[in-house]
Design goal:
Helices cover 41% and strands 29% of the residues. By secondary structure, the chain is an alpha+beta fold. It has one domain: GOLD domain (Jelly Rolls, Sandwich), CATH 2.60.120.680. The strands form two sheets. The protein has a four-stranded antiparallel sheet, with no helix packed on it. Belongs to the EMP24/GP25L family. It is a single-pass membrane protein; Single-pass type I membrane protein.
Length: 187
Amino acid sequence: MKAHMRECFHEMLHKDDKMTVTFQVGDREFGGSGNLEIDFWIQAPSRTYQIHERGVSSGDHSFTAEEDGQYTYCFNNEHWGANTKEVSFNVHGIVYVPESEAPQDPLEKEVRSLSELVAQVKDEQGYIVVRERTHRNTAESTNARVKWWSIFQICVLMGEGIFQVWWLKRFFEVRFGTHALYAVSRV
């Protein structure tokens, strides 16, 4: 999701249908700004908000439709800086199947149930991949900062050591006039 952008999606629901939206905000780019917050909302057909959140980086929201119609859920990056964010989300709800296609065989019902469980595992794996990427980027950013801070400290210590050697050498140096120094060095 690019900076200053809003993306909305629509689902047709019937009254008493249940829907779940889960999402996680990540950052693909190493050294990103670290701001992973967006705005999220779900709007009913009557334009009332089912859910409205500002400044979130993940969420898991379930609700029951109170009316028939088109429900809209949006991810908004308009107010949260100038960086691009990756939003990984999953939507779960009721899938209407005509009665003629409804499974009659217990084995077929079990296969459909297992298929739904595999889809849930796949969704969870995608969520974990985004979290891992976000945490890896944070760790790499921290490591880079520690590296540059260490280099800075080494440079300061080397500079301080050189200064101290120069200062001590200058402090213990015997001061002679120019001619006397010349005479001592010839002897």
